[in-house]
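Example 3.2
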Amino acid sequence: MLVYKFKITLEDHDEFYREIEMGSEQSFEVFHDAIVEGLGLDKSQLASFYFCDHCWRRGKEIALM
């Protein structure tokens, strides 16, 4: 199984970052839960992931409802 490592940063806070490792078989819902738990966010909020091109333009949306 492949493992992907994601680095989360905040645009306004250069010193902030978190790393999350996810297996290739895990879902976006599991990824979302890891982000929410790792950052202490409110689980009741809506969230989406987007596929982006090399210039970070949004493409297909994956919405969590």
